[in-house]
Amino acid sequence: MMELTEEIRAVIDKTTAAMKLGEGEYIAPADGLVHCRKCGAPRQTVIRSPFGGYIAPRCVCPCQQEKERRRREAEERRQRMERIRRRKAQGLQDRYLYGYTFAHDNGEKPVMAKAHAYVNHWPQAFKKNIGLLLFGDVGTGKSFLAGCIANALLERDVPVLMTNFPTILARLCGTFGEDRTAFLNSLGDYDLLIIDDLGAERNTEYALEQMFSIIDSRYRCKKPLIVTTNLKLDELKHPPDLAHARIYDRILERCAPILFAGKNFREDNAASTKAAARRIVSPDNQKN
Ligand SMILES: [Zn+2]
Question: Which CATH number is correct for 92-267, 3.30.70.3040, 3.30.1330.30, 3.40.50.300, 3.10.129.10?
Answer without folding.
Answer: 3.40.50.300
